[in-house]
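Thread: Newbie trying to understand structure tokens

Hi all, I'm a second-year student working on a class project, and my supervisor (Dr. K.) asked me to get a predicted structure for one chain before our next meeting. I've only ever worked with sequences, so writing a 3D structure as a token string is new to me. If someone could post the tokens and maybe explain what I'm looking at, I'd be very grateful. Here's the chain:
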Amino acid sequence: MDLSQEIDDYIKESIEHALGLPVSTQTLESKLNASEAACNRLRQQCLYLQTRLKEKDDVIDRSRAESCMNAQALKKFVEENQKLAKECESLLGQCRRWENECSLYDHDREALMDFGNEADERAKEAEVRVHELEGELSRVVDELQFYKHQCEMQSVNNYHIYVDSSREGSAVEQLLLESLITTMVGNDEVTSTAHAFLQANSGVDVCQKLLNTWNSLKPSTRKILALAAEVKTLENDKEHLRFNLARAEEEVKVLFEENEVLHKENKRLLRHQKERCHPGSSEKRTGSASAKVRRIEYIIWHFYF
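---
Reply by user tm_fold:
Sure, no problem. This is what the structure looks like when written as tokens:
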């Protein structure tokens, strides 16, 4: 079998080295060249590996810096989410408070509307009653004037006839007047009503004189006083109802202005909550408040217009 020159030289040099013979210069030079070549290759590999190691270190540094930035961004994002969650919770609580206030305003407004309607009806009834009483009084006065005129006409013809007719006319007049007043005013509380009316208006000279001569007053006079007391009471009730109605209208106006403020605030809260939260949840939680506000506006608009 043929061996290569290098293997042959290696075997030869091994035998010479074993025998203690000196190594040739050519062999040493070849080994030195081989060692230098190996060192060069190792140096190049070391430089290449150092370059790769530096690149990997740079990649690690960049990854570490990017991880640090991501961690800071994640921490900031978590803090921002926590802050947004707190704001959303605060907005939801405020919306619930607005819903409760809107429901209270709705209840108060309905109560005020009922009170205003009742006051209006009572005022109309009082006005109708006053007009009826005024008509009755005017009719009674007309009848009295008519009978007095008849008596005066009869007195021109004959004095005696005048005396008889005046007595008869006075009797008829008295009977008619008492019958009419009895129809309008009951007999149960005539005395107490008339006396209380005179006492309440004792500052007036006429009322004071009638009060001083109370025991000598005729029943018909007391009935007329009771009728006047009822008219005065109805007028006072009418004024009181008008005052209450005006005050109720003022309160409704104030509530309307407050409702406008609430409506604007509710719109602002809805817009702010839609910007911060998901649209679905904000619409569910604030829909009832918006519906109640629209209902209040509708009621106020119909109440005024």
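A couple of things are worth pointing out once you decode it. The first helix runs from residue 5 to 19. Residues 152 and 162 are 8 Å apart (CA to CA). Feel free to ask follow-ups in this thread.
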